[in-house]
Amino acid sequence: MEDMEKVERNSHTFMISPLKYDRSRSYVEPIPVNYASGYIDRWDANYVRMPCSPCYTTNNTQPPWQMIRQELIQLKKKCDAKLATFEDLKATIIKCAGDNYDIYCLEVLITSVYSNMQRAQFMTTILSNMCDLALNVDTLCSRPPALLRIGMNRSVTMSQRQAASLLACAFFSLFPYRSDREPKDEYKNFQDPNFI
């Protein structure tokens, strides 16, 4: 196994700074690339278009990231106060995604399949942590991951926390343009990353 510094960077994108594993310090988490300088955006056909990107705008030409942040902060506060309901989650997803999606399966899971204890744990602890991960995507993923295409020899290395942050954004359906009813040509060969 090679050190991260020796891996060919042309075909490999690192979202974490190079590190060498040390058993005596297994608790140390990888640091995102560019962590000190903040989020560096890439808005083109070769990278995932991030919900925190200043290039992501809605019909009124305003970036929705601040509105998304406010919705997630409100939901997190309700989770932390043990007051969040499925209706709160649904309202947050609809506001953030910008459309009224059918989330009946999620509703059945949370309200009917989960036991009272499982539902309480999801609506307080798990959902609160998911809000945190989505809210901090611009810090945890200090740059967008590269899109991986068939026929190209390319890979991406990221931390578990970065992957969790991207999945939290997908859960809340935050990724731009992918929530639209009509997929854009540049994404026709990619799965929709949003859960809804």
Automatic annotation (TrEMBL):
GO CC terms of this entry: cytoplasm; nucleus
An annotated GO BP: regulation of DNA repair
Domain PARG helical: 115-195
Top-rank taxon: Eukaryota
One MF term in the entry's GO annotations: poly(ADP-ribose) glycohydrolase activity
Name of this protein: PARG helical domain-containing protein
Top-level taxonomy: Eukaryota, Metazoa, Spiralia, Gnathifera, Rotifera
